[in-house]
Specification:
By secondary structure, the chain is of the alpha+beta class. The protein contains 16 helices and 15 strands. The radius of gyration is 31 Å and the shape is elongated. It starts with a strand and ends with a helix.
């Protein structure tokens, strides 16, 4: 049955750009605010009001286009898209149709290439708020700069589309052109899906509108694919319409019959001239491109010996990846003389721990584990997001100190986790907390050997039995008892050294 049908899915993703101002006027562009307060004659479509292009919106669109491997045309322009709907005060939308800013790109996801048809810049519509039989209109969002990314129908199921959206959201956040918040409407998606018998090309297309969650994209598309197959199996025709995902019912519902592009009657915007982006501007855009998430994931694996899963989780948010690399670099590089907060010297940073493993490599992995477990647990518990790491009491420098002390055998893993909690709660330096609680491990082998001899003398019968028994399990049990006594006696000795010394003492 799986080979009988073929699915064709394309996405249209709308992304609010972080320009601070609207795309064709000077009004504030931001989420929230009192309704209808961030408006002016231009974005409200008053007669005679003339638009002025926000060059920052153009720059951010070009950044996205380059990141998606698109080409920029020599000349580009805007058009009016005619439609009549209450949330668009002009009764038309200024957009790009014939010559979008980004053309013919791609994004690779899980080894599959998804073709990008275009990236274009347009203005957003207002917002309709429905309460019972009454609909209210808020035009604060009308005219906000909107980047639309249109893919070719290269997805085959909802899971692929969901993965693409998550990767795209991560990308625009790394590039700092959008916050990518689907909850606040900063990233929205429409999906076009058709199903046909294998080898016969696309069938009748259905559009899923205003999907504000990558999960809803997956669920809605998988539902539609199953619905289309059912209709085809029954010999019925798929009706081309626009639908929306109903979460409570777990199904899509029809909104209206699908319009064709010709219904919009595009024509060039007469108040905005054709323009060309010069080579200097485009080179500046290229030079400003940040390292993309996929590239950073590969680099973290190569540079810090992280697993693919660790690198993926750390790179999920730019703030997390920055935090991780800052902490590791503190260990990897010698602090400057002006750095008054460094806690360990360079020789300790690169020395070989226990003669086998480099301190740098073990500590970088340890930092990753602390970040993905203990720190994320603290953030989630306190209702904080990864963006809070920039002002987090547990700074990268403090985390680096804790991780290095554990790697160097001077702090136990248990006490390290307690120290992380106290640093976060009390906003104090880790060395102060460790010293105050007496958590620094004693690693002096001679001092530990002396304590072992004292305990063996105090527990002479146990020591004698451990040394003379022929039962390995019994010897191990008695040695563990003696090691516990040594640890209690010394208070903060390195458990591994203690165990080694006790085993050496009881070995016949």
């Amino acid at each position: 049955m799986s080979g009988k049908y073929q699915s064709f899915i394309g996405l249209e993703v709308h992304i609010h750009l972080l320009t601070g101002r609207k795309v064709f006027c000077g009004c504030i562009s931001a989420f929230g605010g009192e309704p209808n307060t961030n408006v002016c004659p231009v974005c409200m479509g008053y007669p005679g009001a003339l638009p002025r292009l926000n060059i920052d919106a153009v720059r951010m669109t070009c950044i996205a286009a380059f990141a998606l491997n698109c080409r920029i045309p020599e000349k580009t322009w805007f058009e009016r898209k005619q439609y009549f709907y209450p949330d668009m005060p002009k009764n038309y939308q200024v957009t790009q149709f014939t010559s979008p800013l980004g053309q013919g790109g791609y994004m690779d996801i899980d080894g599959k290439r998804i073709r990008i048809r275009e990236c274009h810049l347009e203005e957003d519509s207002g917002k309709m708020i429905h309460t019972g039989n009454v609909s209210s209109l808020d035009y604060n969002r009308a005219g906000a700069p909107l980047l639309e990314i249109v893919t070719e129908p290269d997805f085959e199921n909802g899971e692929e589309a969901e993965t693409f959206l998550r990767q795209l959201r991560r990308m625009v956040r790394y590039l700092e052109i959008s916050d990518g918040s689907m909850e606040e409407g900063s990233l929205r998606a429409d999906a076009n899906v058709s199903v046909n018998f294998h080898g016969q090309g696309p069938g009748k297309k259905v559009e899923l509108k205003n999907l504000n969650s990558s999960r809803f994209v997956r669920l809605g598309l998988d539902y539609e694919i199953a619905r289309h197959r059912q209709l085809l199996d029954a010999g019925e025709e798929v009706i081309q319409d626009s639908r929306q995902w109903n979460e409570s019912r777990g199904e899509t519902i029809s909104m209206r019959r699908k319009e064709n592009a010709n219904d919009y009657r595009y024509f060039p915007e007469p108040d905005l001239p054709v323009f060309a982006l010069d080579a200097q501007f485009l080179q500046q855009v290229r030079d400003s491109l940040a390292e993309l998430p996929a590239q950073r994931m590969k680099r973290l694996q190569n540079d810090y010996a992280l697993s693919a899963e660790q690198a993926d989780l750390i790179c999920a948010e730019k703030e997390m990846a920055d935090y991780f690399e800052t902490a590791v670099k503190i260990i990897n590089h010698e602090p400057t003389q002006t750095d008054t907060n460094h806690f360990f010297d360079i020789e300790q940073q690169v020395r070989v721990v226990r003669g086998e493993i480099s301190s740098f490599w073990t500590t970088s992995g340890r930092i990753a584990n602390y970040l993905l477990t203990d720190i994320m647990r603290i953030l989630n518990r306190d209702g904080l997001s990864p963006s809070s790491l920039a002002s987090f009491a547990l700074t990268p420098k403090r985390l680096a100190y804790i991780a290095a002390e554990v790697s160097l055998g001077r702090l136990s893993s248990k006490n390290a986790r307690e120290a992380l909690e106290l640093i976060t709660a009390e906003n104090r330096e880790p060395d102060e907390i460790i010293r105050e609680h007496g958590w620094h491990l004693i690693t002096d082998t001679q001092a530990i050997a002396d304590a072992v001899r004292e305990v063996c003398a105090e527990e002479s019968s146990t020591f004698t039995e451990a040394k003379t028994t022929d039962n390995p399990k019994r010897r191990l049990s008695l040695a563990s008892f003696l090691a516990g006594k040594v640890l209690k006696k010394m208070g903060s000795a390195d458990p591994k050294i203690v165990r080694d010394q006790v085993e050496k003492a009881v070995t016949p």
